[in-house]
Structures are given as C-alpha cells and as structure tokens.
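Standup notes, protein team

Yesterday: finished cleaning the Oceanotoga teriensis set.
Today: RimJ/RimL family protein N-acetyltransferase structure.
Blockers: none.

Input for RimJ/RimL family protein N-acetyltransferase:
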Amino acid sequence: MLKGDKVILRAYNKDDVKNALKSINDFEVKQYLDPSIPFPLKYEDELKWYERLNPKGDGTYSMAIENLETGEYMGGIGVNSVDWKNSVASIGLFLAKEFWNKGYGTDSLNVLLNFIFNEMNINKVKLNVYDFNKRGIRCYEKVGFVKEGVLREEIYRNGKYNDEIIMGILKSEFKQKNNQE
C-alpha cells in the first residue's frame, strides 16, 4: 500500500472489479484509454483481467486508487511495462469521472512516480496521451512530465483524426521538483 496526501494506491481486490468496469465502460472515461472502438467490456472480461494480476510478476503493477478519507475505489494506475536494460517504465492511469478535477490524479501520479524512482530504481517514466485529453495533459505536466514527441493523426475519435503525445519524466527531474536530492 502506497499513501499520498489524498489517495492510497493498493492491490486490486475482487470487490473492485464491478466499480472498475463501471468506470472504464463510461464513454467519457473510455475515450481517453483505448484507441480501438470504445465498445463496452463485459464483467467476465474484467474478472479475467483481475485473475491474471500478479504482484510478483515482471515489474508490471496494477493498483487500485482509493480515496484516503472515504476508502472509496476511484480508479486505477500502474506500471504497464519495464525495460530493465534501459531503465524505462511506461505507466497508465484512469479515474472515474466523479473524481476528475480534484487533485486525485496528480496525487496518484506523485505516489506512483515516487515508488518507481525510489523503489524500482527506474531512470525514466513515459506515457502516451491523446491530444484531446487536455485534463490529462495538464495533470501530467503538473507533476513534471514533458512532451517528447507526437504521433500525428494516430487515433480517429469524435469524427476526426487526433494526435497521440508521448510524454516523459526523468528521475533527476522528479527528485529536483520534489526536493529529494
């Protein structure tokens, strides 16, 4: 369990599956997560995903975001892949829309980045975000991510082609921003 100012990042439990499914099947949430046609997932699909989670796996970690005050499930965050040779991790994050614009995403990212840089000893963290996800981009920039590249017209969503932005943050940048040096 990893604790922030507003959230706790913890292992998923079976009770989270229904709440996670509700969130990721909400079109407003799903449009930012998946480049494919935003078709709803079934409960059985989400349950299979949950049953495949392995906390002692290959460096990938999927964690539930829990409200520190209420204990309520809010979304998910995790390390999606790790390149151990080059010390680079890819991450992802989603929040149920009732928790948007309240600082929970920023706090969740800070907690996860602290874990990645100080416990996993990774040098760089990267993520991909669609250009129409203005809220997400602001959140990522707030914790120190910078734009590193653009995949032009990578996703067709909302009747037009949109760019996918690649963002990254270095361990040294995170430590400097958080006075950890």
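Follow-up from PR in the comments: The first strand starts at residue 2 and ends at 3.
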